[in-house]
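Page 42, continued from yesterday. The earlier attempt failed because a stray header line got pasted into the input along with the sequence. Redoing it now with the clean sequence only.
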Amino acid sequence: MKRSEINAIISGLKPLIADQSFHLPPFAHWTPEDWRTKGEECREIVDAALGWDVVDFGSGDFGRIGLALFTMRNGVHGDARYPKPYCEKLLIVGEGQLTPDHHHRLKTEDIIVRSGGNLMLSMQNAAPDGELLDSPVTATLDGVVHSFAPGEVVRLVPGQSITFVPYLHHRFWAEPGCGTVLVGEVSSVNDDIGDNVFIPQMPRFADIEEDCPPLHYLCSDYGKFGVLS
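This time it went through. Structure tokens are written below.
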């Protein structure tokens, strides 16, 4: 992805999110210039990978296969400085935009349709070796256990949620014709470097062509640009 494309995506998302009466934390608006005024008091933001994330999963077509999200809070596995056992994200799923097939080995997450359109999803059980299984899927929707055929399409409307446990393989997209979806994610600690299994394998973070300066750092940019170093 080009940095100019990422900048334009974030610039377009901020008013969309505000129009839904959802308010991001102050560091969502910090520029690289703002970061240069910050010190060790902001270390948690960097180490816990909080902030913006825009990814096309290597597709080269963000509007078709991609996701924009913002991590508001998170812990760090094995680091006593960051004892939060939970994570919270906002996912912005464009109409018809797919987040491709993946599961987690450690993370349990609730995916919550906060506002906007409808979220479509399908699920399949996975074995610890990554093999996808042709067995019925059991999942909890808002405290009620449901059974689904593998690959069955499920629709969630605003206010509904689903729980994905480890090795529950899933994909999701915004239903065409119903608009962008604001999705909440509440989970155990998130580790996007080591706890994502994509089938087929694909990059979790965007490969960025730096055609212009960043408007806001992505959570994957902190090391690249030496933030707080």
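Notes: The mean pLDDT is 97.
Reminder to self: strip header lines before submitting.
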